[in-house]
Amino acid sequence: MHTIPHLRRVLASLAVAATAIGLTACGGGGSSDSPAPPTPVPTPAPTQVPRLDESRCPYTLHPSQQLSTGVRCGELVVLQDRSNPSGPTVRIPFAVFKPATASSRAPVFYLTGGPGQTWTEVLAQVPAGFSPGFNGGAKLPRDEVVLEQRGSIATTPALACANTGSSWGPESFRDPTAELSVVLPALRACADGLIANGVQPRNFTTDDMADDVEDLRRLLGYDKVVLNGVSFGTNWGLAMLRRHGTRVDSMVLDSVVSPAVFPLRGDAQAYDSAFSALAAACAAQPACAARYPGLDDRVSTLFDRLNAMPLPWQGGPGNEANANVALSVLGQTAAFSPSSFPRLVAELERWVNAGQVPSTLPQFIEDILIDDSSLRQTFGQLLSVTCADNATTTEAELAASVLQVRPSLRPARTSVNQSIYALCGAWPYRKDLPASAFLPVTSAVKTLILSGTFDPLTPPSWAQQVASTLPNTTVVSFPTRGHSVQNGSACSNAIVRAFLAGQAVDPSCAAAEALAFE
What we know:
- There is one protein chain.
- The chain has helices spanning 15-22, 177-196, 206-220, 232-244, 263-283, 286-291, 295-308, 323-336, 341-354, 363-369, 379-389, 395-402, 410-425, 460-467, 490-500, 508-512; strands spanning 51-53, 71-79, 89-97, 108-111, 144-147, 225-230, 248-254, 311-312, 320-321, 446-452, 473-478.
- It is an alpha/beta fold and 518 residues long.
- Helix 4 links the parallel strand 6 (225-230) and strand 7.
């Protein structure tokens, strides 16, 4: 959630894919309690807020789905600013997927990542009777609910900003100054246009979204809910826990982030640590060590050489492949495809040795660079949340964070920080959040935390920090995984099922997973 646009506009842009594909593990079991069925809530007047508007389904659903019996969908209508009862509203799409046989178990609320990501491309793939997780690949055992983040492309209004520079984020440029000279005026113009139309970006925060979840819970008639979030979705869930904890039955937090860890301050070190951890894992495997000897030193040398002499690359940021691009590509690979990391380092070394980027890129690199348009992340929402959640982080603290990493990474990380600070300075996000918004969340709610050893986006140390104030928490670390560990792991799915069924969690399968480097 914490890095501003890069190759896919945001390093965490796959978090919603993990939500859509991996969170179905919630469906494997129920909580140890048996909550009562939803309590009918009187229908609010058409002008009352908050209210549900189910006059139409805002999503394109699978042809097999039947409205009212299999799926209930519509829009949650809430105030943009809950302190202003006469102010404008936000219309936020939601959908409730219902099993053929009604269940009394607490419903699962899925919380997407980003911030600013959407369900619009996912729900059309979910057949009747199946969960919205796994793209409809698992049976639906109880009610499961999806809710858009206010400000996503599916909401009215959406905090979308077009024409804000190239497809490469400013931090991908060695010197982001020129790109920022284009991006910042465009951002300010976007914000001015939103405000002129009654939209205040400062009212699109994590706490606002937590209150949206609570309003939806109440209007749907549920007593308690199970929260399952990935990446930024964990922060969203923690805000719900802090503000409405009596309504949370249990939680699954995968790849944890929280404003209490001030992610921008630890971002640089998280990348450096992930690179070193992957190099150490390669060195521990004889075949990988033989094929890619001295990998950690090679990473440092690679960045030193790219710092000294970027490669010409038509279409790259500033028409070059520089250390900033290498940082983004290696970071995304560590997060989502750690087995490819040594191979990517070797491929980038070949580019440097040849003095140019090949005219035809290897397919595995093309897969990293391709923009996943199905994520349809809104830039304004990303900034409203990320900047507010890090509002107390100073420029000096960002500069100090760079000194914690190996010297070869510092120029690129400095560009990233310069870009983040400038982008937040140009966006009217909320700066007056109460001090409580930055305190660790304390609760006895039963929680499962999952983390991946190689995750540079939400490193394992953040999971431990969040868990330290949640005494009823089980933490499972996956020593071969990066970001979004529920995505594609039978082991993590089994662990989540056991947790939600009230059974003892056995983490042994996580420790037994093996990483086969390419």
